[in-house]
Amino acid sequence: MATTTTVPDNLTRDQYVYLAKLAEQAERYEEMVQFMEKLVVGNTPVGELNVEERNLLSVAYKNVIGSLRAAWRIVSSIEQKEEGRKNEEHVVLVKEYRSKVESELSDICASILRLLDSNLIPSATASESKVFYLKMKGDYHRYLAEFKAGDERNAAAGDTMLSYKAAQDIASSDLAPTHPIRLGLALNFSVFYYEILNQSDKACSMAKQSYIVSQPLSFEMTEVRIALWYMPTGDCYEAFEEAIAELDTLGEESYKDSTLIMQLLRDNLTLWTSDVQVGASLPLPDQLDEP
Length: 291
What we know:
Helix content is 75%, strand content 0%. By secondary structure, it is an all-alpha fold. Helix 2 (29-41) packs across helix 3 and helix 7 packs parallel to helix 11. Residues 13-290 form the 14-3-3 domain.
């Protein structure tokens, strides 16, 4: 049975980072969250996180929320099956269990959103950091919108839109089209349009444009790019030229990250285009957001 770890208040910044890495290696992500939260809040302001610290924070929360989202999907699927079988006793039990998972989802989202609003976003000075945190804020409001209903869902969706748009404004002016954070934002923003707002055309358009403007001039991608170019997305020639000019500036790690996200964009486009063509009459797998 999981127990709450008491995290000391008097450790150095480097010690919290080391413990977070240790927890990650041990796959104890709840404790990884605690170590990174302590680093961010601490007894005194730590200022803007460096890239390593920022990524550790993201990985910690992403793994905790990821397992909870997967659990919610499984339980919700079982609930639908039990309702179909008219098994009222099991339906009651499953609903109670789903509520427990939703409470845990709400708690972890509230935790990171507090850190973002109180510490991380106000202390961010670099454009890359601002986009990273605003995107993260949008992500966790989107996760809330996945299971909330009624006014709560509308509020979460509205907060998601505001956060993603704020991140998009900065990314469009300050980050290259090939930047992995800008691409990740486009990926998750398009998932929001598809999954939460049910606007498949807008989702496809956003994913398609981001995919096209980030493509290198390679023989193997020519046919894909031509096919996407002639689908109705609006004029993105200028952004396309800008992307080509920026490709050579990517470092090895950024190139790998960008390539992965571009693959996810392409996979979603294939999935969503199929959805539009069949009129959503066939069951489709979950769309992909940033890992």
